[in-house]
Amino acid sequence: MKLFFASDLHGCFDSTSQMIAAFERSGAEHLILLGDILNHGPRNALPSGYAPIKVAELLNQYGDKIIAVRGNCDSEVDQMLLDFPIMSDYNLVLLPNGRRLFLTHGHLFNSDSSNSHKHPRLCPGDIIASGHTHLPVAAPKGEFIEFNPGSVTIPRGGHVASYGLLEDDTLSVMSFDGKELCSVHLD
């Protein structure tokens, strides 16, 4: 199974087009969107190429391959433009190796084990995949694996725009020029 992860598109058509091209090249079976899909949000500057209707039209062409969760900038109005569900706060995917992949944006649930209110109840070895911080992460964190594909549109912390891949029991965060930014092997 090969999965492609993206987060924090924030309505930018240019970045979303670049992400879709990478998804197609990857040969992944599913495109996992970890929230903040159409809206730029009140704390972010308007991204160059901001065109949420065009982003929705492009993503709708891949609706049968998309698994998505709601970000803090996503709303029912955004859902009205999309042909695939985005309003779930989380989703669980069972991987062939028996691990669970907990998908969330990161504003409600996250990998902070010191805050039991925000930390999902998972089994050791499970993966928490989230966006929200716009920072790429692929690393063990306590009994879990923390994974964040970074941001397609508004990278932070000096990082470049990025996406994630799960292939052959390895989670990787990749730049759009093909460089691996970080990875973790799922033993």
CATH topology (fold) name: Purple Acid Phosphatase, chain A, domain 2
How many DSSP helices?
3
Strand arrangement across the biggest beta sheet: 3-2-1-9-10-11
What is the helix/strand order?
A: EHEHEHEEEEEEEE
Give a quick account of the main beta sheet: strands, pairing sense, barrel closure: 6 strands, mixed
Fraction in beta strands: 25-35%
Structural class: alpha/beta
Number of β-strand runs: 11
Measured between the Cα atoms of the first and last residue, the distance is 16 Å
Based on CA inertia axes, which overall geometry fits?
A: globular
Q: Any idea what the radius of gyration is?
A: 15 Å
Number of domains: 1
Share of helical residues: 10-25%
The first-level CATH class name: Alpha Beta
The parts where pLDDT drops under 50 for at least 5 residues are: none
CATH homologous superfamily grouping: Metallo-dependent phosphatases
Mean pLDDT: 93
CATH architecture type: 4-Layer Sandwich
Cofactor: a divalent metal cation
EC number: 3.1.4.-
Family: Belongs to the metallophosphoesterase superfamily. YfcE family.
Keywords: Metal-binding
